[in-house]
Amino acid sequence: xxxxxxxxxxxxxxxxxxxxxxxxxxxxxxxxxxxxxxxxxxxxxxxxxxxxxxxxxxxxxxxxxxxxxxxxxxxxxxxxxxxxxxxxxxxxxxxxxxxxxxxxxxxxxxxxxxxxxxxxxxxxxxxxxxxxxxxxxxxxxxxxxxxxxxxxxxxxxxxxxxxxxxxxxxxxxxxxxxxxxxxxxxxxxxxxxxxxxxxxxxxxxxxxxxxxxxxxxxxxxxxxxxxxxxxxxxxxxxxxxxxxxxxxxxxxxxxxxxxxxxxxxxxxxxxxxxxxxxxxxxxxxxxxxxxxxxxxxxxxxxxxxxxxxxxxxxxxxxxxxxxxxxxxxxxxxxxxxxxxxxxxxxxxxxxxxxxxxxxxxxxxxxxxxxxxxxxxxxxxxxxxxxxxxxxxxxxxxxxxxxxxxxxxxxxxxxxxxxxxxxxxxxxxxxxxxxxxxxxxxxxxxxxxxxxxxxxxxxxxxxxxxxxxxxxxxxxxxxxxxxxxxxxxxxxxxxxxxxxxxxxxxxxxxxxxxxxxxxxxxxxxxxxxxxxxxxxxxxxxxxxxxxxxxx
Length: 550
Prior knowledge:
Elements: H1 4-16, H2 27-54, H3 68-100, H4 110-119, H5 121-147, H6 187-199, H7 202-216, H8 222-248, H9 255-273, H10 280-290, H11 294-306, H12 311-318, H13 325-338, H14 351-354, H15 365-391, H16 393-398, H17 400-440, H18 449-453, H19 460-469, H20 477-501, H21 512-530, H22 537-547
Helix pairs in contact: 3-4, 3-5, 4-5, 5-7, 7-21, 8-20, 8-21, 9-19, 9-20, 11-12, 12-13, 15-17, 17-19
């Protein structure tokens, strides 16, 4: 029999036992969860580090380098990174272009087309150019302060100390006129400017940019060196002009329009008098944009060069289906004079050859405007709509109607700008022919014939470009500078080749592109290191991604 004492203690112990109200975790499971959190954190950190290799975050501080070995190591890492990014960019662009052509290539050649697009010479040339530029620039810029140290005692005054006790509060942005506002830098960029002024001198970045740019551009093809040198030189001029005007308080009203007029004067003169000074693709585009018969443009070029024209070009115009009988009769009479012995080609290309579909010159301007407008509308439509959808799609989907309306209005203004340019030039060509006839037959007030004959000279076509360029006022103000920067390289190249043909300037030989690139990059890098706010936003962001603070 069980003892009474034992039997009375069992129910008491059972009553005291209960199930815990909290969740019990095994130590092994807890450690596994902790290790997963650590692995996730490490993965996120590796992703951030990998992202830095491709995309440099804003506000990166300048690297303090103490000796030449650290300079070489820093430059080598930056050069390899720049070369890898450049290779990937160029290969991607080539791959997209190859994909577009894929349907026209036989199937057995498509694989080799893709291989050539990715691993072709163009990709390696582009990578070598940017990689060598970044390496040489970083090494030179950071080595100069070590080899030629700057006096650190002549530091900048502290921005937190005022020399005078009574200092007026700076005006708020709403109190400053829009035209008087200056671009501002972020705090990290301001800190970098303090580092630049303490450690370097302006000529350091100029020398490093000239050396790196002149050597790096030699890796590219000769045909591409010209384009690269022109663009870099123009961007250097733009930054230098902005820095100069900001420092001295000088502002030229409508300066971009003035530059556009000067460049168009040279370009239009070159199109009709010296087409060899313009790229062939650009000459073909201008001929198409003019809306006139290409044979008539060729006749004008021949008349300005030799005083004669090819009868075959006149035959091409006579064979057009849209030529009217009046103009056909006039051109047949001109053809008979040109084929006589001795031939008589006249003093200028007749208006009936320039617009064979209409007789009166006064009925050309308005139809030419609408013809060019319809031709340019899809081109400018793609220019305004595609970047907005691809690169600003967040803002586009937030307010699509507003964005579509702005892009549509911008397309109309851009198309009207080009149409006005062509119509104005066409009117000038016909008007100068009419004015020459009136002044030549004038008896009361007779001008010297040499001044009247200027209206038929090759230089008179340049005035058509000058008057037509005033149509830039039709374009949106923020785009005027972009268009001026587009025509400036072509106008400068044409002017240089024209002056060289006359013996006014020297021949640069095989190193002309190298010299021009060195001058352009010396200006660009000087502005980038010392006054980056004066560079265009696109140029500044590209340089920061490839070069960084230093």
